[in-house]
Amino acid sequence: MRAVIDRIEDGQTVVLTVVGGGEMIIPVKQFKFKLHEGMWFDVEFSPNKKAESKSLARVKKLQQELLNHP
Q: What is this structure's pTM?
C-alpha cells in the first residue's frame, strides 16, 4: 500500500492519505525521522500474534472480573 503525508496538524499529528482511498492519522512521535508534507511511504502491515494473545488474555481476565463482581 502507498500513502502520502497530506498534512501535519499542530506539529503533532500526521494525516496520511492512502492511495485508493482512506486516511491514517498517526502521532508525529511515532516516526524516527524528519517529516514533511508530500512525503511518500510504502506501508505494510504484519500480524503480531504475541500482542494479540496478550490483549485477548487481558480482555478475558476483565470479563471474568466483571462476571464475578457482586
A: 0.69
Span 16-29, pLDDT tens digits: 999 999 999 999 99
- Domain carrying residue 55: 2-67
- Indicate the number of domains in the chain: 1
Q: Where are the beta strands (DSSP E) in 19-60?
A: 23-27, 40-42
- Judge residue 38's burial from the number of C-beta atoms within 10 Å of its C-beta, 0-12 exposed, 13-18 middle, 19 or more buried: exposed
Sign of CA dihedral 63, 66, 69, 70: negative
Run of H or E including 56: helix 49-67
Domain CATH code at residue 19: 2.30.30
